[in-house]
Amino acid sequence: MIQLTYKYPSPAYGENWNRRRFAIFKSVGYICQNCGNYAKGELELHHLKPYKISKDNSAQNLAPVCRGCHKRIHKEYLEKIGVL
Ligand SMILES: [Zn+2]
Ligand SMILES: [Zn+2]
Asked: Rounded distance, CA 53 to CA 67, Å?
C-alpha cells in the first residue's frame, strides 16, 4: 500500500527523517515541485520511485509537493497501474 502522507514516518526512514524533510523543503523555498505554489506547512515528500520498491530515501528520489498535488499524483499513479 502506498502511503499518502508522512505524518507518521516509518522507523525505516531513520531518525533524521524529519530533519531531512525540512531541509529538503527549505532547499526548494517551500515551493511545490509539481504546481509551483508556495506551500509552506502543506508540503509532503513524494518518492519518485516508490520507497517500497526502491528503498531510496535520497534527495534524488524525493520530490517536495503540496498536499493536493501529492494526492493527485498518487491517484493518477494508482489509476495508471490499474489499482483504482
Ligand atoms: Zn502542488
Ligand atoms: Zn507520494
From this structure: 22
DSSP single-letter state for residue 13: G
User: In DSSP terms, which residues pair with 53 in a beta bridge?
Assistant: none
Q: CB neighbours (10 Å) of residue 29?
A: 9
Stated pTM of the model: 0.75
pLDDT, averaged in runs of 10, over the chain (84 residues): 50 76 94 97 92 88 95 88 68
> Where do the domains of the chain lie?
11-80
Cα 83 to ligand 2 centroid, rounded to whole Å = 15
Rounded to whole angstroms, the Cα distance separating 49 from 56 reads 8
Note the ligand closest to the C-alpha atom of 2.
2
